[in-house]
């Protein structure tokens, strides 16, 4: 990075506006090479240079290629970081405290891991972690799956509507606790099977769809379940009689949404099946915990207010209208 560092130290006329963050991007290539890109503002106060560094240092395979793009200076250079690559090295930018600015450090490793941090004068560097063990990686992706389902309002609202349909509605003969539990288990299992198919297919690159139509379709799937709840069906409709069929079909759609989150997080090239299975397991764990919470809350409500158990159609309609309003807004926004 010597050429880039020297370039970063060249003073230029002072600017009257705060400097925007610089960007240091390092991408590992096959064979131990690293493509380095340093983007910094062209205007920099005298004596306040910011200099990118790698510690322990890598050797330059080429001279820096420098371009001026408007108000930015862009430098590219190929580095040789040896067989270990960037793992275990500190990567950052010096001079941030003096310049009173920040920088973005973006790193893409050969195994598919990605690291992006905002560094400043107090913490000017990041340490590139060693590759985790298989068990550690699996645990990380399970946690990622749980976090995604827990923070995914649309997915949780869909599961809530699905649970309410199986418990509050259905054929007149399916009124025992055991029968409703069987309906719920079948519906949740079908949703799991559906989104597992498209999650795997999308992550492995077999299918690909634009994100916006998928997000809008997910919201619309909630609207359709809400409409079924609002109708107060007693078992006449196909969705009410076989909720598992709708759960599987809509699960195919939701799987593309899960795939987008997993792709954004990055996948280790050498352990894609493990990461995929662990992420899916995390989604199922979070989903089951949510279903258990909803069912427990309903059971406590029936016990606290036995009269409410006889008003299930009215409760279903009220929930359907509330869920439908929220989902319809999401559909229009997306």
Average pLDDT:
82
Poorly predicted parts: 1-19
What amount of the residues lies in strands? Answer: 15-25%
Give the % helix.
40-55%
By DSSP (H or I, 4+ residues per run), the number of helices equals: 10
| Major beta sheet summary | 7 strands, mixed
Distance between the termini: 44 Å
What's the structural domain tally?
2
Summarize the helix and strand pattern as letters.
Answer: HEEEEEEEHEEEHHHHHHHH
Number of strands: 10
User: Which structural class should the secondary elements be placed in?
Assistant: alpha+beta
Shape: elongated
The oligomeric state is single chain
Radius of gyration: 27 Å
Walk me through the structure.
The protein folds into 2 domains: 126 residues, Immunoglobulin-like (Sandwich); 200 residues. The chain is elongated, with a radius of gyration of 27 Å. The N terminus is likely disordered. The strands form 2 sheets. Strands 1, 2, 4, 5, 6, 8 and 9 form a 7-stranded mixed β-sheet that branches. Strands 3-7-10 form a 3-stranded antiparallel β-sheet. 52% of the residues lie in helices and 17% in strands. The chain has 334 residues and is of the alpha+beta class. It starts with a helix and ends with a helix.
């Amino acid at each position: 990075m010597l050429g880039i560092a020297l370039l970063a130290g060249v003073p230029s006329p002072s600017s009257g506006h705060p400097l925007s963050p610089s960007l240091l991007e390092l991408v590992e290539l096959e064979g131990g090479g690293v493509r380095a890109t340093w983007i910094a503002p062209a205007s920099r106060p005298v004596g306040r240079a910011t200099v990118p560094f790698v510690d322990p240092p890598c050797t330059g395979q080429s001279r820096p290629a420098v371009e001026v793009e408007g108000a930015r200076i862009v430098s590219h250079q190929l580095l040789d970081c040896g067989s270990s690559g960037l793992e275990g090295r500190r990567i950052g930018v010096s001079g941030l405290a003096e310049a009173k600015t920040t920088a973005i450090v973006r790193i893409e490793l050969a195994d598919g891991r990605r690291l992006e941090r905002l560094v400043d004068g107090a913490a000017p560097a990041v340490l590139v972690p060693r590759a985790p063990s298989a068990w550690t990686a699996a645990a990380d992706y399970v946690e990622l799956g749980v976090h995604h389902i827990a923070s995914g309002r649309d997915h949780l609202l869909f599961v809530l509507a699905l649970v309410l349909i199986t418990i509050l509605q259905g054929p007149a003969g399916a009124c025992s606790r055991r029968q409703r539990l069987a309906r719920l288990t079948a519906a949740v299992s079908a949703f799991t099977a559906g989104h597992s198919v498209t999650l795997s297919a999308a992550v492995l690159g077999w299918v690909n769809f634009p994100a916006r139509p998928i997000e809008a379709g997910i919201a619309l799937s909630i609207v359709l379940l809400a409409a079924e709840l609002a109708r107060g069906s007693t078992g006449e409709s196909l969705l009410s009689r076989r909720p598992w069929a709708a759960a599987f079909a809509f699960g195919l759609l939701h799987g593309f949404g899960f795939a987008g989150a997993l792709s954004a997080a990055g996948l280790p090239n050498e352990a894609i099946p493990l990461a995929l299975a662990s992420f899916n397991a995390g989604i199922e764990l979070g989903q089951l915990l949510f279903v258990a919470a909803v069912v427990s809350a309903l059971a406590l409500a029936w016990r606290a207010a036995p009269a409410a158990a006889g008003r299930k159609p009215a409760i279903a309609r009220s929930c359907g209208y509330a869920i439908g309003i929220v989902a319809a807004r999401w559909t229009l926004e997306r």
